[in-house]
């Protein structure tokens, strides 16, 4: 294992703004704009939102802080980080790190497929085709698109754009692209929100999103809220760890973790403000599930004044949000290949892209030619989603919480989390020791069932 690399040669993010843009860029993605609204819609609205915020504060911020600190203290890829920081049982912890790398590749593979859908919709929106469909025809077009080879082609386009950004390196690629895309994303999102709020009947949508109705809350709702918090904050596979390894020694970890969590939640809430008023204003159902954004919303845009502009703007928003997330997933594997195998970044990017193109194509085909190819009853796409969201991410989150709370010495944790106030550090450590592992164990067991 090549663990003797010179840490001073490792890249660092250039500015504080860059730190926030990259970490928020990773966190903000399909999870906020596609998954959050349909989960909220299917889980009763405001009550789900409250539970979600609860988990972001109690589990999310401590686990992001833990990932940042393990990354920055070790200045290594996830496997190297566990291996160098573990005081004993190094091999065992390195195995935990490998799990993160495998998860990141699986997530990248199915995530790129959905990111590819957003590119298809973006081009259909720009050319005006999206709004020209007759009612039923739009849904049929979505089904036939996802079932065909065009979907594979878009997945590959996503992975190539992703590789191109990564080739620029940490500062000139990841940081620079995030610095310009994240502000743009906020502007587009804000414009879309204002437009939705001005629609007649917008208040009903806001009431659905913000007025908590606890009569629909079940054990499942609570689990979905926690799973959503994990996915949305990119936790448990080492994304935040690898970004933390590029922080300067002056970056305040707890503040950055809190800023990431707050901005990520803000984007999710804004996505809700964009979608639910529109859904209620046009009499659609908020509980349409994963198709909410790809079928219900385009129908609404087609009826909305100015829809020819709002539809492409919305899918551009989704595409931008996804690409800053795919680069973060890829960086986990790329840093691992570079540092552990001692190869050049270019080679590592090629390997990562090639694996993701192969696995991503299988995921893309799961909606068409491979729809009947099932492993344990799952299509490839659903298998990767299930394995990562329900098993590998919670497991990875549990490892990093236990590692930071119980295994590495408290003085390292304190030094890394300084200058945060003492009681905040204590609260974070308390969550990492007891609350986060227990909560995650519950998601894990229920995920298995
Ligand atoms: N958090 C991103 C989203 O909300 C997706 C993401 C990026 C991710 N990196 C991750 C999810 C690592 C899980 C693990 O869309």
Any key phrases for this structure?
449 residues; mainly alpha; globular; binds tryptophan
Could you explain how this protein is built, in words?
The chain has about 450 residues and is mainly alpha-helical. Helices cover about 80% and strands about 0% of the residues. Helix 5 packs across helix 16, helix 5 crosses helix 17 and helix 16 packs across helix 17. The longest helix is centred in the first third of the chain and has 38 residues. It is globular and about 65 Å long. About 55% of the residues are buried. The N terminus is likely disordered. The chain binds tryptophan (TRP). The site of tryptophan has 16 residues, from helix 1, helix 2, helix 11 and helix 15.
List the helices and strands and how they pair.
Elements: H1 16-27, H2 30-42, H3 46-74, H4 78-85, H5 90-127, H6 129-132, H7 135-146, H8 149-167, H9 169-197, H10 202-210, H11 219-232, H12 239-244, H13 253-281, H14 292-303, H15 307-341, H16 345-365, H17 380-407, H18 410-417, H19 422-448
Helix pairs in contact: 1-9, 1-13, 1-15, 2-11, 2-13, 3-4, 3-11, 3-13, 3-17, 3-18, 3-19, 4-5, 5-8, 5-15, 5-16, 5-17, 7-14, 8-9, 8-15, 8-16, 9-13, 9-15, 10-13, 14-15, 15-16, 16-17, 17-19
The chain binds tryptophan.
Named once each, the bound ligands are: tryptophan
N-end to C-end Cα span: 37 Å
What portion of residues belong to β-strands? Answer: under 5%
Summarize the main sheet: none
Helix content: over 70%
* Secondary structure category: mainly alpha
Q: What is the β-strand count?
A: 0
| Outline type | globular
The radius of gyration computed from the alpha-carbon positions, rounded to a whole number of angstroms, is: 21 Å
Low-confidence stretches: 1-6
Mean pLDDT: 93
Number of helices: 19
Q: State the order of secondary-structure elements, H for helix, E for strand.
A: HHHHHHHHHHHHHHHHHHH
């Amino acid at each position: 294992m090549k663990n003797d690399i010179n840490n001073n040669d490792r890249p660092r993010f250039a500015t504080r703004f860059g730190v926030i843009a990259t970490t928020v860029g990773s966190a903000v993605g399909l999870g906020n704009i596609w998954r959050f609204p349909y989960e909220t819609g299917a889980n009763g609205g405001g009550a789900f939102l409250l539970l979600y915020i609860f988990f972001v504060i109690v589990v999310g911020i401590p686990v992001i802080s833990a990932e940042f600190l393990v990354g920055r203290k070790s200045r290594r890829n996830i496997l190297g980080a566990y291996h160098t920081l573990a005081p004993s049982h190094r091999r065992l912890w390195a195995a935990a790190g490998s799990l993160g790398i495998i998860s990141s590749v699986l997530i990248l593979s199915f995530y790129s497929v959905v990111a590819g859908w957003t590119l298809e919709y973006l081009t259909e929106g720009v050319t005006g085709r999206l709004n020209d469909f007759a009612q039923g025809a739009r849904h049929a077009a979505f089904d036939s698109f996802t079932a065909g080879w065009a979907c594979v082609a878009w997945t590959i386009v996503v992975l190539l754009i992703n590789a191109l950004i990564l080739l620029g390196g940490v500062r000139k690629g990841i940081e620079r692209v995030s610095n310009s895309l994240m502000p743009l994303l906020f502007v587009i999102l804000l414009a879309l929100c204002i437009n939705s709020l001005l629609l007649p009947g917008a208040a009903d949508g806001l009431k659905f999103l913000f007025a908590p109705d606890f009569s629909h809350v079940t054990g499942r709702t609570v689990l979905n809220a926690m799973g959503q918090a994990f996915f949305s904050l990119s936790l448990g596979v080492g994304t935040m760890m690898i970004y933390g390894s590029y922080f300067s020694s002056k970056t305040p970890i707890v503040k950055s973790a809190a800023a990431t969590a707050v901005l990520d939640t803000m984007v999710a809430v804004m996505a809700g403000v964009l979608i639910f008023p529109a859904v209620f204003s046009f009499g659609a159902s908020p509980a349409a599930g994963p198709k909410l954004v790809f079928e219900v919303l385009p129908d609404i845009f087609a009826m909305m004044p100015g829809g020819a502009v709002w539809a492409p703007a919305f899918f551009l928003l989704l595409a931008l949000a996804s690409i800053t997330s795919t680069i973060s997933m890829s960086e986990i594997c790329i840093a691992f290949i570079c540092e552990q195998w001692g190869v050049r970044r270019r080679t590592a990017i090629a390997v990562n892209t090639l694996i993701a193109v192969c696995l991503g194509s299988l995921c893309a085909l799961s909606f068409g030619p491979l729809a009947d190819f099932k492993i344990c009853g799952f299509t490839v796409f659903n298998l990767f989603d299930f394995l990562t969201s329900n098993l590998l991410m919670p497991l990875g989150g549990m490892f990093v919480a236990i590692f930071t709370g119980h295994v590495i010495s408290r003085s390292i944790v304190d030094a890394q989390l300084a200058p945060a106030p003492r009681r905040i550090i204590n609260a974070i450590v308390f969550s990492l020791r007891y609350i986060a592992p227990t909560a995650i164990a519950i998601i894990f067991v229920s995920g298995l069932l």
